[in-house]
Amino acid sequence: MSQEIEIYEENYSSDDANIFQDITPRKSKVTLGLIDIPFSQTDDRPTIEDSFVGGHPIWLNDSPPSDNLLLCKNCSNPMNLLLQAFAPLENTSYDRVIYVFICLKSSCKRKVNSVKAIRGICKDPVKMKKIDDELSLDKKSDDLSAQLFNTNINTNNTSNPFASSNPFSTSNPFVSSTANPFDPQVKENLGANTNHKITISNSSDKINKNSWSNVVSKTTELIKPKKIVKSNIILPSFPGYFIYIQREIFKKTKNDQLLKNIHYDESLLDNEINSIKNSVSRMNLNHKNNNKYKKNNKNNNQIENLKSESVSKALNDKSFQFFLEITEHNPNQILRYDLNGSPLLFTSNDAVYKTISDDLIPRPSFNLSSKRRFELQLMPKLIIDLEANLNSDQVIMNGMEWGSIFVYSDIEDYINDHDLDENHTGYIEEWCGVQWDDELHL
How far is CA 288 from the centre of its chain? Predict the structure, then answer.
């Protein structure tokens, strides 16, 4: 499977043309999430319309999912929240959230189902009707403007794949190219990056927005909703951080093409590879500095050989090389959001690669006539951020070892009305694929 990142060139303006004269910025259609201010450094508490990593989940309409969704399928222990992303789809009037959880028990590391993705939906008919009314007023206003000024206004603009569907935004976040495409409303003065309030939305889904309220109001009369059961589970947590976003940008110099024509001495490349191997061998979370993990010389040599083999495999893995090439432009990314797009694969040497590359993502069991599409992935930089305050022993015992986590969601965004509770809220598990970091495993 050849990976591609769709890009387009954009003019760059700067007061200092000399500095940027060799740079042509290019953007992809991927939206990146980056760590912003920690919860501990602000009085603002996250709301359902925020997206964040770590901390505790916020449930739609104060309705938690069933306990079994919050427990590891391997050990039945509560799981840590990795990500909560407010991700309503464009032209829909209901709230939608993606949650990603992970089990940190050492016995569950690298096991299937130790990471879980949950999609939550809230179809509150009162709120949906209010949103529909606002959308209707906006459309009438646009139509009137078109008549008055004889302009052709496209009210179903699809040029921005992350356009917000929230009509209660204080302003349209896509009027300016510098606006936050996740942000229904920007909070004030929260550290260096103040636009941490994220709404992830896309124009890929064309759903009849005028029918939702009517459908919900009719079906709720016929279907007896599930009773809300308050969960008694206490979830462990990482430190919480807000996320701010930016469109993925690549900077390419005019000299890049020249570099392709340069021929290298292979012996120099071999020396560089050996240098990389030696550097990586000295890393791995300071295992050698901890007496519990010291082995005899023979075992240590075996481990070093395995590490060297792992590095050699990585250097020859085209997927991993492409992963490095893309992430080096934006090394602080913790989240990639690209609904209907393609994931950035960490390796081509595992079952998840085959599942994704051969289009073998399982159909949703709750909607077998449908299929799943890629929505988002978590990047390994998130591990560094969430484990920043752990000591070496804690990292060794409870540290995470994944290279990337992929979430695929139902293309129809379906949840059976029977699964909605009295607050019109329901949760469903989606497909979650994990590519592990083999180097950390050694």
Answer: 34
